[in-house]
Amino acid sequence: MATGFGSGFAPFAPGTAGTIVAIPVFLIFSPLSWPLYLLSALTLTFLAVYVSQEAEKVFHKKDAPQIVIDEIAGFLWTMFLVSPTLRHMLLGFILFRFFDIVKVFPARLCQERLPGGYGVVFDDVVAGIYANLVLLALITFFGI
Fold first, then answer.
1. What letter would DSSP give residue 9?
2. Which of the chain's termini has less CB crowding within 10 Å, N or C?
3. Across residues 31-48, what is the average pLDDT?
4. Among residues 130, 107, 128, 125, which one has the least CA distance to residue 49?
5. Does some domain include residue 26?
6. If you ran DSSP here, which 8-state letter would residue 68 be given?
7. How far is CA 68 from CA 4, 43, 71, 116, 142, in A?
8. Other beta carbons less than 10 A from residue 63's beta carbon
9. Residue 2 within a domain
10. Is residue 108 part of a domain?
11. What is the tens place of the pLDDT at every residue in 55-64?
12. Residue at 102 is within a domain
């Protein structure tokens, strides 16, 4: 689970590979009503915290690059309240990867200061929320 069905073992950009795996996960969740989607995203997020913490023990490294379940959770936050069109998913993917790499405050702080799986996952949740706000603004104000 932590490696996103093995995508975390990609030799180049495992976080990007994990985010690609997040797209079909989002498509499974997308027909849900917004309260059920939110509950599902929360559940997956806290499952990711537990799984990431256990995976750190297996990989003997904090936030090992093979752990990509955090990208899957983060992308679900990116796509909250967003319709599953190809354009929206592509833009959401780009925005999420941008915010995940740049680590806008407080994402880096979460990664550095939160213990165990919380530090692994919550920087991606923050990135996902930032990406979601930008994506919703683009959809609302520019009709994207």
1. G
2. C
3. 98
4. 125
5. yes
6. -
7. 6, 16, 5, 14, 32
8. 19
9. no
10. yes
11. 999 998 888 8
12. yes
